[in-house]
Amino acid sequence: xxxxxxxxxxxxxxSFEFFPPRTDDAQLTLGRTxxxxxxxxxxxxxxxxxxxxxxxxxxxxxxxxVRRETNITPMAHLTCQGHTRTEITEILDHYRDADxxxxxxxxxxxxxxxxxxxxxxxxxASELVAEVNGYGYFSVxxxxxxxxxxxxxxxxxDRRRLADKLRHADFAITQFFFxxxxxxxxVDELMALGVDKPVLPGIMPVTNKGQIVRMAExxxxxxxxxxxxxxxxxxxxxxxxxxxVDVATTLCEDLLAAGAPGLHFYTLNRSTATREIxxxxxxSSMH
Length: 287
Ligand code: FAD
Prior knowledge:
alpha/beta; TIM Barrel; eight-stranded parallel β-barrel; 11 helices; 46% helix; binds flavin-adenine dinucleotide
């Protein structure tokens, strides 16, 4: 199975992100979504991990299922906060033995309730990157925050820490954002720090107004006033989805024109918006 670092050396990658389903119904939805997206021939799909291990078994099961039952290359997300070294080793041993070659090494967030905080041998994603690299087996991705990570004192500090982390990884995937200039600035600032590893922009098509406001708040992403105005112009869910697809299509065009090494779509386990953007960009015919 392919390593994402190698795929990126060959050319652009187009990829999809899923979260592990909680219920039988959600599992069926994800199965259908993967079946609908497989014909688009994604370079890889990634599966998120509940910080502190809350989806440990579910993430592992989805990743292992994709590896065994489809022709798609999977990547497993893994967060290190709230894990001991022994737990992380068990998880990485499993992926190596299951022939899964790609790990997204993340810090994760501490639970809001102090009672839920578990012992941790790690504080930052860079420590997990070192652990994963120790296997000499995996391609390693890390998270990048174009508008700065919410816990960082300022953007320059965040960029230095990202540059230090990315030097030891194969590629980064960004938090979602709505203006290509954020991505271009991120790549330029990393380059100025001597880091030219591929940075895949993360694309979140807006499909629901309340949801995008909540997600933007949590991730430190600005909702630009032109987008808020467009979304506030309607309460019709179909119109909102249409605006979301339209905005994401333009963003993808701008990013590809700016030289992005690929696009990573946050699908929220649904295929329709991603398929529409693919069609608008004529991506199916490009690879
Ligand atoms: P880090 O790289 O550890 O950074 C966290 C903060 O610490 C930043 O402010 C950074 O500047 C700072 N920092 C880093 N190193 C140092 C240092 N040496 N000294 C002082 N400060 C330092 N979360 C999940 O729970 N599960 C997922 O599956 C998941 N997938 C994600 C996928 C993508 C593409 C992205 C962008 C985010 C994802 N997240 C996920 C969210 C992520 O876990 C949070 O944003 C988390 O708060 C930070 O993760 P990180 O890997 O960037 O952490």
